[in-house]
Amino acid sequence: MQTGTLITLALYFLLMIGIGLFAWKRSTDTSEGYMLAGRNLHPAVAALSAGASDMSGWLLLGLPGALYAAGLVEAWIGIGLFVGAVANWIIVAPRLRQQTEELGNALTIPEFLANRFPDKAKTLRVVSGLVIVVFFTVYTAAGLVGGGKLFETAFANILPATGMSDYMMGIWITALVVLAYTMVGGFLAVSLTDFVQGCIMVVALVLMPLVVMFGPGGTAGGSIEAVAASQPGFLSLTQGLTFLGFVSAVTWGLGYFGQPHIIVRFMAISSLEKVKVARNIGLAWMGVALIGALGVGIAGRAYAQRNGIVLDDPETIFIVLSDLLFHPLVTGFLFAALLAAIMSTISSQLLVSSSSLTEDFYRLFLRKHASEREAVNVGRVCVALVAVAAIWIARDPNSEVLGLVANAWAGFGAAFGPLIILALTWDRMTGAGAVAGLLTGAAVVGLWIALGLNSDFINGQGLYEIVPGFIASWLAIVLVSKATGGHKAPA
């Protein structure tokens, strides 16, 4: 069984590397080509690339696992994310596409902020670049944890003996394949592989719940109701939901405004007029994917209970069902979907981190007049360096995908979310206000996590760190901008 699965995965890996080689021939001669594909992405590619790079391993591991363990009440995270994505496409996408090109043809978010606030240009580039590299290293680690869990669960004891665990072998295989196409093909390779991976993911998320419910031993015959009877409130959106729990779940959507690996896709769409087309495609894809993930968690719990399956780690439900219910070749396809979710996000994060290290540190401080070819090669080296750091963070097999993603998501959302929204929409924002918001958002999130307030804020209830971080950052920007004379932004 596992041989057929491995063959399918090997073909998937070869496809990803082949796309990387194709992109290498097309768009890696200049920094703009390597980092933004020449601002010429087709709207469908941009839309699915944004979606696939967003959803990561938590869509097939973390979210189904949360629903498997706690029930439908965990769906509020998905609902909040969808609302946030809609707002992001409407508020940020068209403005960012237009303004980044008009303000010095910025290739990175830090460069855009520097061009928008020239009086604090260097400070903004350095601080925002540091935030990007630090949080993305943690975020990349979350993806690698997902890859490790897949290989540890699905291929235990059949991988070649290397002296390392199946978990670490999975991390290294995932990282090396992503590095192969990201380093070679840059943004175009990442976007094209994201498009293919997005298609694979959505097919898998439609297929899996249907087979779980209507296949042999399926759950269509009342098994879900049996779970609800044995665990009261399992199918309720409100059972056990507190006010702080509700706020913590739905405010995941606030994170969208500040995710560099997502909003950079808006900068690369071929024209401002195509943003609306990309938005419609992206939101349709996201809606189907989220519903599928909810179905995997709920139907998977019913299937496990009906067939006496006990899971030590709820986040592996997608992997276990793939192995039990499908032909090995189809299982390989489903595992490829999981790897697609993981790898699409990792590649995007590595490239954005690399772009920031190259443009906002190397070219800013070390080699201001570096050639385009030199900048591209430095970017490739930076991709590898960030990957090595992420591998080190992900080495603990007890790490939780959703927990790592939650911390990084909150860090970006609080540090960059209010900053991006107000920079695009409020002409009286100042450079000092931008710096204050960036530092305040990142600091509040870090302090909230360090103090454990995300798990114990009031009477044993936690509050998701993005909430205080986002509010504090917004207030810091407004108050400092007003105090420093809030002049209109340059035309």
Automatic annotation (TrEMBL):
InterPro entries: Na/Glc_symporter_sf (IPR038377), Na/Pro_symporter (IPR011851), Na/solute_symporter (IPR001734), Na/solute_symporter_CS (IPR018212), Sodium:Solute_Symporter (IPR050277)
Highest taxon above the source species: Bacteria
Biological process according to GO: proline transport
GO CC annotations on file: plasma membrane
Topology in the lipid bilayer: Multi-pass membrane protein
Single GO MF annotation: sodium ion binding
Transmembrane segments: 6-24, 45-69, 75-93, 126-147, 167-188, 195-214, 234-257, 277-304, 324-346, 375-395, 401-424, 431-451, 463-481
Protein function: Catalyzes the sodium-dependent uptake of extracellular L-proline.
Protein name according to UniProt: Sodium/proline symporter
